Amino acid sequence: MPLDERAVVISNTCVARDTYEIELLAPVIASEGKPGQFVHAHVAPTSAPLLRRPFSIYDADPLSGKVWLLYRVRGLGTGMMACLRPGDEMDMMGPLGRGFTLPGCEHPCPALGASVLVGGGVGIAPLVYLARSLVKAGASPVVLYGASSQEDLAARGRLSDTGAPYHAATLDGSAGFRGTVVDLLESRMWSASPRRKSPGRLERSAAASPPSFIYTCGPEQMMATVAAYAQARGTPGEASLEAHMACGVGACLGCARKLKPSAHGEIGYAKICRDGPVFPLDAVEFDAAGGEEARP
Amino acid sequence: MSEIDLSVNLGGIHLVNPVVMASGAFGYGSDYADFVDMASVGAICVKGTTRRPRLGNPPPRIVETPCGMLNAIGLENPGIEAFLSEHLPRLRAGGATVIANIAGTSVEEFAEMAAMIDAADGVAGIELNISCPNVREGGMHFGSDPGLVHEVVMAVKGATSLPVMPKLSPNVGDIVAIARAAEAAGADALSMINTLVGMAVNIDARRPVLGNVFGGLSGPAIKPVALRMIYEVHREVRLPILGGGGIISSRDALEFLMVGASAVSIGTAAFVNPGCTAQVLSGIRGYMERHELTRLDRITGAALIR
What we know:
Strand content of chain B: 15-25%
Number of strands of chain A: 16
Oligomer: heterodimer
Number of helices of chain A: 7
Helix content of chain B: 25-40%
Radius of gyration of chain B: 18 Å
Largest sheet of chain B: 8 strands, parallel, barrel
Largest interface: A-B, 37 and 39 residues
Radius of gyration of chain A: 18 Å
Number of strands of chain B: 16
Strand order of the largest sheet of chain B: 3-4-7-8-9-10-15-16
Strand order of the largest sheet of chain A: 4-3-7-1-2-6-5
C-alpha cells in the first residue's frame, strides 16, 4: 500500500555533471517498492516550487531500509533538492505506479532469457534496480547505458554492483562505444559475457542474437528508436515514461498519454502515474521529435 | 467553554465540518483511498461530470508556475451515467458527503443532468460548473453572462429539489453581477472561485506549453484574487459561499472564512499534501479554541469593513 513517508537524507552526492544521487532512509518504500515504480517527492516545504517531483526508484535495499534516487538538476525543484544535507527530511509518497514485469510475476515474462535494458541519461535510474532484481531472479540481463559524454555516466558504479554486465555508449566517444545507445544496440557489439568491470571492451559474440525482451527508459527520441528496433524484430518489451504530474495517484488527470488504441483496449488517455509509468513498448505512441522541458 | 461546533449549513447542504475537497482535485475518491478518509472531510465535490463521457484535452495538460499550476484537463470524465452507477455508490459506502459537479453544454443539458442526480440516491447538493476555462462548448461561457447564469440556475432549480450551488468564474469583469444573477434565480449557495485563465510558453520549442494553449491557474498564486472576490460578493449577496483558491493552510482557510466564506474548498494543495484537509481542519479548531469561539458563523465575514 502506498503511503506518505518522511524520508531522512543519508547522503546527497554529485555523481556526474549536474547529476546527483540521494540516499534516503525510507523503510516502507524500500521494502515495498518494485523496479519501475516511483516516489513522489516534496523537495521543500514551500509554495515554490509547489508540486511534488516524481522520481523512479533508482535502487532500494529492504534490509537497511534505504532508497536511492538519481536526479539531474533541471530547475528550481531539483536545484533545491541538491541542497539537501544528511539529516534533512523529505516527504515521499510511494511506492506509486505500475513497475516492470519481472520473472515470477503473474504474467508470462520472457525476460528471464537474454533481456536487454536500454537506458539513456538519468533514464538509467529505474533500470539499475531492475537489473539488480532480474539478476536476483536468476535472469541474465545486459544493460546498455548511453550518455552524451563520460562526464554524464552517473550510474556506472551502481551498475557494476548489480551483477549485470553493462556497456556504455557516449556521443563523443569519451567512454565506451562512440554513438548513441541505440547505435550500440543495433551494432550488436555487446555480449552477456561477465566482463562486468570492463564496460569499455566490446566484442561480437554469440549473444549478439536479438534480445528476448527489451526494457527501456530515457529521452523520448531514444525510446522511439528502441521501439522501432523492437518492432522490426518482433521483440516484446516495456518502456518507462515520464511526465509532469500534480498528484501522482491518478486524481488530477494531468499526466495523460495517448496509447495505441489496440493496446489500451479502451478509448481515452492513459495516466502515466497510475496506469504506468511502465507500459508495453508496442502500446506507446512515441514522439520521435519529442524534447524535454525543464520544470520551474 | 461549550463544545466547538464545526458543522456548516451550506445553503441546505449539511457539512460536518467546513473543509471540502474541491472538484477536480479528488477525482471520484478512489485514487486517494490510501491517503484520505473520505468521511473525514466536510464534503467531496466530485470531478466535473458531463452528460456523455469526455476524452479531455491533448497533453501536455499541466505546467507548474510560480506558487501555482496551470491545468487544461478539459473535463475528462466518464459521463454522468457512470458517475451515478459506478462512482457514487462507492463514495457513499466510504461515508462521503457528495456534491455532484456537473458541466452541461446547454441549459437543457444542465437540467437533464440535475434531474438524473435528483432521481439517484445519495447526493447532498449540486455544484454547477459554469466556469471551466478548458472546454470549448459550455464551461466558462455560461458563467460570464449574468443572463445565462440566471437561465442555467433557474432551469436546474426546476429540475431538482437538491441544493444548487453555481461555481463562479473569476474571469469576469463584475463578479458581483454574476453572483446577484445566481441569487435572483434561486441558487442556494455560491462556490467561488474557479481557476484564472493563463498560459505558459516553451521557449525551446517556441510554442505554448499546454496542448490546449490556455489553462486554468490554481494554487497559492490566486489566493488574493479569490479573497477579494469573495469579499466583494459577501458584501452584496446573502447566499452562503464555499470559498477556495490557493488554500494550503488553516491560516489561509481562516482568511477565506473571515472575508465571507461559510466553508472552504481545497484543491491544488491536496495534490501536494493529501493530509492537507485534516491539517486545515485541525488548525481551524485550534484557532477557535484559542479565541474561545464555539461556532464558525462567528468567524464568517468577521473581516468585513462595513
